[in-house]
């Protein structure tokens, strides 16, 4: 162990400008420890440098992948935000559509009532189809001309409220459709039935003229000047004026008699008949199917007549009735 006690002298000689030489001594043990420590530190530094160099590429790759992933996530978030915006716009559009459909269904309900009134059917006041007060008189089919305002993001509370309102609107629409559909079908059947009834009911004037010269019932006969029963009404006109079928039906008889002159008789079913007398010319024949408003003859002055006119009769189950209540509209109307 003598080497441990050995000492080594070190001299530090400065440059030529300094004449002082520094001398110091280190024991062998201290010098050994210093060398070992230096060697250990150097080895550690070399190991760290080796490890760093070995993993530097992997760290760079991970950084690159992290940057790419970050970019992808940002893109995904941006697309999600855009998709959410599109969904919000779609919900707003559906909300407008729901309100528009409610208004149109309210119009359908009004139309149903009008159809019943036109057809003379009783109307129901139980309809629950009503336009929204805030939408009354408005339409969603508008142009954007003149529109403006600050563009602001949609608050979540407002979006949630709109979703709830739209869901409620469509739920109401489903209920209203279920109510309105059978009603409209019933109205359609009733209107078609009424239309069929009206088609065979003599509701139009058989002539262009509306000037009645002799009413139905007891009157003074123009030839004998005695009280006699007049089975129809007389409508004045000019010879050759058109005479129309007052309702759908089948021509059952045509001909010429001393009192009637040229005449046409039409059966409309259900015991209802109309007769047209004193005609100038007959333009139909027995067995012919005619529609309301079809031309069947020309007004004249034949038979027991004092001048050009049409003697028009309506009979129900074989008995003559006053034609005047049946005369509700002209052929064009």
From TrEMBL:
The keyword Transmembrane helix applies. The keyword Transmembrane applies. Residues 77-111 form a coiled coil. It comes from the Bacteria. The chain crosses the membrane at residues 28-52. The lineage of its organism: Bacteria, Bacillati, Bacillota, Bacilli, Bacillales. Gene3D superfamilies: Glucose Permease (Domain IIA) (2.70.70.10). It holds the Pfam family Peptidase_M23. Residues 122-151 are annotated as: Disordered. GO terms for molecular function: metalloendopeptidase activity. Residues 229-323 form the M23ase beta-sheet core domain. Keywords: Coiled coil, Membrane, Transmembrane, Transmembrane helix. This is Peptidase M23.
């Amino acid at each position: 162990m003598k080497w441990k006690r050995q000492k080594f002298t070190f001299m530090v000689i400065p440059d030529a400008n300094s004449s002082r030489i520094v001398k110091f001594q280190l024991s062998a043990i201290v010098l050994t420890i210093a060398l070992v420590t230096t060697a250990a530190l150097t080895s550690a530094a070399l190991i760290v440098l080796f490890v760093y160099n070995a993993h530097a590429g992997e760290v760079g790759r991970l950084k690159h992948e992290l940057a790419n992933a970050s970019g992808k996530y940002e893109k995904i978030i941006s697309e999600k935000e855009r998709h959410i915006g599109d969904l919000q716009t779609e919900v707003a559009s559906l909300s407008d559509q729901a309100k528009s459909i409610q208004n149109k269904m309210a119009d359908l309900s009004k139309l149903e009532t009008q159809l019943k009134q036109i057809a003379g059917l009783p109307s129901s006041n139980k309809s629950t189809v009503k336009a929204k007060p805030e939408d009354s008189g408005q339409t969603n089919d508008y142009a954007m001309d003149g529109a403006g305002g600050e563009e602001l993001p949609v608050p979540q509370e407002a979006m949630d409220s709109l979703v709830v309102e739209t869901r409620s609107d469509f739920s109401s629409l489903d209920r209203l459709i279920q109510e309105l559909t059978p009603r409209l079908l019933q109205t359609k059947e009733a209107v078609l039935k009424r239309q069929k009834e009206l088609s065979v009911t003599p509701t139009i004037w058989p002539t262009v003229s509306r000037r009645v010269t002799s009413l139905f019932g007891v009157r003074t006969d123009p030839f004998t000047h005695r009280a006699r029963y007049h089975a129809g009404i007389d409508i004045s006109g000019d010879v050759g004026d058109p005479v129309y079928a007052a309702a759908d039906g089948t021509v059952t008889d045509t001909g010429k008699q001393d009192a009637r002159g040229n005449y046409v008789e039409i059966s409309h079913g259900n015991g209802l008949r109309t007769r047209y007398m004193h005609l100038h010319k007959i333009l139909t024949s027995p067995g012919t199917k005619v529609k309301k408003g079809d031309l069947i003859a020309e007004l004249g002055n034949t038979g027991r007549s004092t001048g050009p006119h049409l003697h028009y009769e309506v009979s129900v189950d074989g008995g003559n009735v006053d034609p005047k209540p049946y005369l509700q509209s002209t052929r064009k109307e």
